Amino acid sequence: MNADYQDLVDEISALLGAPATLEDRDFRLIAFGAHDSEDAGAMDPVRTRSILTRRSTSEVRAWFERFGITSAAGPVRIPADPAAGVLRGRLCLPVRHRGTVYGYVWLLAADSEGGAAPSLPDASLDAAMTVCGRIGAQLADEARARADLGPHLNALLTSDSDERRASALATLSAPLGAGGPYGLLCAAPWQDPVPGVRTVPGASVLTLVPVPGASGPRLAALVRLSAGADLGPAHGAARALLGSGAGTSAGAGANAAAGRAVGLSTPVRSLADLPAAWREASAAARAALARPHLGPVAEWSAIGPYRLLAALPDSGPGHPVDPAVSPLLTPAHAELARTAEVFLDCAGQAGRTATALNIHRQTLYYRLSRVEQLTGLDLHEGEDRLLLHMSLKAAKL
Questions:
Q1: How much is the average pLDDT of 152-156?
Q2: DSSP strand E in 202-266: where?
Q3: What is the Cα–Cα distance from 19 to 52, expressed in whole angstroms?
Q4: Which residues, 6+ apart, have CB-to-CB distance to 297 below 8 Å?
Q5: Residue 35 confidence (pLDDT) above 80
Q6: Is the pLDDT of residue 82 over 90?
Q7: Contact between 298 and 284 (Cβ < 8 Å)
Q8: Facing residues of 187 across strands?
Q9: I need a surface site. Which of 143, 154, 193, 215 has the fewest CB within 10 A?
């Protein structure tokens, strides 16, 4: 918890005589006041989950937003609704700065029947809203700082200079903190403008990364994860990126990003580990583009052999192809290449391969003999089969 925010939340708790919590506009917990364990009204399941997991579910968020908290300029009283898991009424104090909401301060009703919200003097509420204004100004400053961090993340991920990477790391650590966990996302290809950080839930920094030889640049998105390193927030950001297009808001629909995939790195504990995480995220995105069944959102840990194959350079003009396999990769022999790949995917079992391709076994044997003639490889030899299989998979990347 940020000590500054903790002090401000404690100040509001003292003004209103009740423990308060502060969440950002994405309902991620920032700070919370001390709760009396003897006070049965101090907690309910929604608040408990928020404190323990440091975030609320999308269903809880949608339920509270129904009461107009995103546009309210003053306190909003919200009744209890046991059917929604909200056993206590709440008082929501929007945290705003210059007309933009940056978060919410929450107080629970103290009565055991739920209630609408604690009844408080107007003077106390006015004083609490003044503190909320200070919180909003600080959150706004941090949001602006994050918006300017893209070039520094780019330098950390791509620069060949140790000095530039060290400088970028120091600049990123100041507003973000050196500790994680973090997840890094790679959205590829990305031909649209870089979206605002606010449009991608959970994202801390976004930057466009040109990739020579690839089909287009890639978008890197840094997402802070919960303490348990659960990739749920990263998946939420990935869905938003898949629904983003030029001039659209996040979540506008998957059709806006046809032909796009998002790769997710394994969680990292330090910003210094982001270059390795970017290689993982990029590999996962490439694998998902090449093998649609892996995506459109693919975790690096789940792409199997592509973790090794993606370490090879991007395919394309000028990239080396094994000379034995090269003749098979021409457009004229696309059907033979597909037959060989399915045969090897089926562990060399002719019956399974013929069924998968919907062809007769004799047709399969003829095609495989043509593959051997073109490549000079013997499909009865394990190493020849391994070379062919790797080359066919790598060509799709």
A1: 94
A2: 203-209, 218-224, 261-264
A3: 16
A4: 235, 238, 239, 242, 261, 262, 263, 264, 288
A5: no
A6: no
A7: yes
A8: 219, 262
A9: 193
